[in-house]
Amino acid sequence: MPILELHDVSKSFDGFQAVADASFDLVPGELHALLGENGAGKSSLMNIVAGLYRPDKGRIRVKGEDVHIDGPSIAKKLGIGMVHQHYKLVKAFNAVENILLAAGADKYRTGLAEVEKSVCEHCEEMGFAVDLKRPVGALSVAEQQRVEILKVLVNGAEIIILDEPSAVLTDSEAAALLKVMRTLAAKGAAVVLITHKLGEVKAFADRVTIMRGGRTVTTADPKGSSLADLTAKIIGQAVCETRHPAKAIGAPVLHLKAITGARADGHRTLHGVDLTLRAGELYGIAGVGGNGQPELAEILMGVNRPTGGTLEFVGAGDISRSNPAERRKLGLVCIPADRATYGLAGELSICENYIVTGVRNGRFGSWTRVNWRSGAASTKDAVSAFEVLGVRSTRQKASLLSGGNAQKLVIARELASPPRIVVAHSPSRGLDARATSEVRRRLLEARDAGAAVLLISEDLDEIMLMSDRIGVMTRGRIVQEFEAPADRQLLGKAMVHHD
Amino acid sequence: MTEMQLNIGMARPQQPPAPPSMGWRIPGLLLEVRQHAPIWFQTLVLLCGMATGLGLSFLILLAAGVPADGLVVEFKSIFSNTTNIASLLTQLAPLLIVGLSAAVAFRVQFWNIGIEGQMIFGSIAATFVAINDIGPEPLRLPLMMAAAAIGGMAWIIVPALLRIRFGVNEIISTLLLNYVAVNFLLHLLYGSWRDPKSSFPNSEQYTAAERLPQLGWESLTYALPLALVLTLFCWWLFSLSRFGFYTRIVQSNPKMALAMGLPVIAVTLGAALLSGALAGIAGFTISSGVEYRLTQSFFLGYGFSGILIAFLARNNMIGAILVSILVATFFIASQSLQVFYQVPGAIVQLIQAVIVISVAGFEFFNRFRLRLAR
C-alpha cells in the first residue's frame, strides 16, 4: 500500500502555475526519483508534501488517510522529512543543537544528551562522519547535508525527501550518499530523490516520475527505459550533443605563469598554475572539486589577487594587479559559478542587471545621465536573442528568473560586445538539458568568433565535449595537458592518481 | 525599521533566494508572500501607515490633556496664518536637508546615525570662518557653507573608512561620534568661543554678512531655496546620473558590483561624504539662517527627524519634500502646544516614533497578502 499519495495537486504563485494537477505515489522500501528540468515543479510539489506550501487544490493521503499538511510541524508528525536544497541550519549552532532545535525537546540539557545519543546511533548505522561539536557554519557542504539528513532521521521520518542532494557534492560523495539512501529504503523507509541527473536515476532509483511544466508526465521503471527515452520525456524532444572542434586556433592571448593563491584564511589553494589561452580555442580545466578551481576563477575575474605569479595579457603586459574594470576594458569577461554572488543582483530589474557593464563603459548614456530608453531596448533585444524565457517585462526582478534563464541573462550581458577572453566557471551547473545545450552553444560561438575561452568544470563529460585542449587540475596545479579528443580513462587517471 | 537591515561591512553574506511563497493558516485567513507590490499599492500602504500613526498621535495628545477642538484649531492656524506658514517654511529647510543627508547615505546601505554630530561640526566650521572673519565679506557666506560641508565630511570620513577598510559597523561609530561632537561643542561654547558680550554659552553673534539674507517675504531666508536646489541636485545624482545607477547595484549586491568593475569603494565613500556634507550644511542653515550664532542645542532632534524623513520617503529625494513639510508641521505645532498646553517638547519625537512604527508595521501588507480562507 502506498505510504504517500498525491492526487491532482495544483499550486500557483501570483498567477504562475508551478504545479498543475500533479499526481504521485510512494511505497515503503523504494527510492523514487522525481525527475525534470529546472522549473518543472519538482521542488514545489515536494514543498507541498513537506508542509511549506499549501496546495490550491488536490488530495494528499498519508498511509491511506486524507490529510491537510498545514505546516512543517504537521508534516513532521506524519513522518515526513525533507532535506532542502538550501539547508535550513543555524550556522552558529553545532550539529546536535541544530537537530535538537528541529526535534523540539522540552528540556535543553536532557534533550541534548538524548539527541546526541540518537545521532550517534544513526551515524554509526550509516557510516556517517560528522563533527558534532563544531558550529555547522564551519562544516563542509557535504557535512552540512549529513546534518540535515540526521535531523530528518532523528525525527523518525518514514518519508524522506531529498531536494537535489548531489548538486553540491562530488561524484564520489554523491554515490556514497545515494548508497546510504538505498540502505534506508531497504530498511523500509520511502525515499524521494529530486534530481535532474539521469545517471543517478538509472543507477539508484526503483521508480522514476517525470515532471514537465508543473505536470507529472509519467511514472516508469528506470531500468526498463533508455536514457534517450527518459530525456525525451523530460524535455519533450531529444537533444543530442556532438563535438564541434575549433576551426582556426590563433595566437596566444593570455599566459598564466606560476600563479599561486590563498584563501582569506591563509589556506594556500593554488601552487603555481601555468597555462596559455589561445584565440579561437576552448581550454577546459578538468578536475575534482576543491582543487583550487574557484580560487583560480576569482583571480581571473579580478575580485581576488594572486599571492604570486603573473597573468600576461598579450599586448597589455601583466594584469594580475589590475581591477575588474581594467580587465573588462581589455575584453576579459566572466561567467561566474555562483550567479547570486558575482553574476546578478536579484533585487534589481533584468534591465539593470543587463546594462550594468554598458553603463560603466559609456554605451548607455554619459556620466550625467543614464540612457534608460536605449538600455531597455538593448535588454529586450538581448533577451530575445539569447532566448531568456519567463521575462514579462525587463523591469521584472532578476531573482524571479529560473536558474537556466538567469544564466542566459548573465551570458547575454558578458557576450554583449565581442570578448577576447571568456572565463566560464561551471556554466551549466544546475541547468536543465535544454539550457545546458544553449549555454554551450553560446560559448562555442564566442570561441568561433575568435575569443579564447577558458572552461572550468567538474563535469568531465562537459569538458570532453567542449574542449579543444584539456588541462587537469589537481591540488592547485595543472598536472597534465591533453589534446582533444582525449581518452576518458587517461583523464580520469590524471585527475585522481597524482600526488 | 524593516527597510534597514543592518549591513556590517562589505562582506554581507548572500542569502539564498527566498522560496517564492509560503502559505499557512490563521483561523479564517490565509497569509501569502507577495512577490511584487505595485507602486500605487505601496503608496497606499504608506499613506495608511501614516494615517494610523497620526491617529494614534492624536489620541496621545488627547491623553496629554490637549482638548480635541484645541488641537484642530492649532493645526488649522498653522496653515491659515502667513506668519505661521513662514515659520513652517523656515523650519522646512534644515529638515529637508537632513532628510536628504539620511537618504543619500541609506542609498548605499550606509546607516548614518551621526547626522547631529556632522551638523555640529558643520556649524563649528562655519562659525570658525565667521568669528575669524576669513575671506572678503561678499564671499563670507559661500565660504561658511563650504566650511560647513567640509566639517560635516570630516566628521563622517572616519566611520566611512573604518567601515570600508575594516568592516566596523557605522551605526555604532557614527552614533558614538555624536557624543564626542556634542562635548567638543560644549567645550568651545563654555571656553574660548563664549560670547564676550553676554557671557552666555553661545558664540558671538554673526555679522550681517555672515547671515543668510532674507527673501523679502515674512522672515523667510535663502535657506529654503538652497534646500530645494540641493534636493534637485540629489534627485539628479541618484535618479539620472551614472553615479546613482552605481549606487543601486552597490546597494543590492556589492560583490557583483565589484566583479562588474564598478568603483564600489568610491561610490560608498562618495555617498557617505555627501551625506556628511549635507548634514554640515543643514547645521549651517540653522546657525546662519535662524539663530545667527552657534548655540549648544541647535541640532537637537534633527538626526532622528532626518532618518524618519528618509524612511517615510523611501529614500526618494522628491518625496522627502512632502515628508519634510509634515515633520516641519509637527515642529511648529509642538512649539505652540508647549506654550499653550504645557505639553513637553519631546512630544514631537514621540509622534515621529509612533508614525515610524505605524508605517513600519503597515509594511507587512507590502510583503504579505491576506486572503479569506476557502
Rounded to an integer, what's the Rg of chain A over CA atoms?
24 Å
- Give the name of the CATH architecture of the largest domain in chain A: 3-Layer(aba) Sandwich
Helix count of chain A? 17
Number of strands of chain A: 22
| Elements of chain B, N to C (H/E) | EEHHHHHHHHHHHHHHE
Can you count the beta strands of chain B? 3
Mean pLDDT of chain A: 87
Question: What is the distance, rounded to the nearest whole angstrom, between the alpha carbons of the first and last residues of chain A?
Answer: 52 Å
What is the mean pLDDT of chain B?
87
Question: Roughly how much helix do the residues of chain B carry, as a percent range?
Answer: 55-70%
Structure report:
Chain A is an alpha/beta fold and 499 residues long. Chain A has 2 domains: 4-235, P-loop containing nucleotide triphosphate hydrolases (Rossmann fold), CATH 3.40.50; 252-496, P-loop containing nucleotide triphosphate hydrolases (Rossmann fold, 3-Layer(aba) Sandwich), CATH 3.40.50.300. Helices cover 36% and strands 26% of the residues of chain A. Chain A has helices at residues 42-49, 72-77, 95-103, 108-126, 141-154, 171-186, 198-204, 227-235, 293-301, 324-330, 339-343, 350-360, 372-385, 403-414, 433-448, 460-466, 488-496; strands at residues 4-13, 16-26, 31-36, 57-62, 65-66, 80-83, 159-163, 190-195, 207-212, 215-220, 252-262, 268-278, 282-286, 308-313, 317-318, 332-335, 365-366, 369-370, 421-425, 452-456, 469-474, 477-483. In chain A, the strands form 5 sheets. A 6-stranded mixed β-sheet of chain A has the order 6-7-8-3-9-10, sandwiched between helices. Chain A has a 6-stranded mixed β-sheet with strand order 16-19-20-13-21-22, sandwiched between helices. The longest helix of chain A is centred in the first third of the chain and has 19 residues, at 108-126. The termini of chain A are far apart. Chain B is mainly α and 374 residues long. Chain B has a domain at 92-321. Helices cover 67% and strands 4% of the residues of chain B. Chain B is built from 14 helices and 3 strands. Chain B has helices at residues 39-63, 68-80, 82-106, 115-131, 137-166, 170-190, 223-240, 242-252, 254-259, 264-291, 302-312, 317-341, 347-362, 364-367; strands at residues 23-26, 29-33, 368-372. In chain B, strands 1-2-3 form a 3-stranded antiparallel β-sheet. In chain B, a hairpin with a 2-residue loop joins β1 and β2 (29-33). The radius of gyration of chain B is 22 Å and the shape is globular. Chain B starts with 22 loop residues before the first strand and ends with a strand. Chains A and B meet through α10, α11, α12, β17 and β18 of A and β1, α8 and α9 of B.
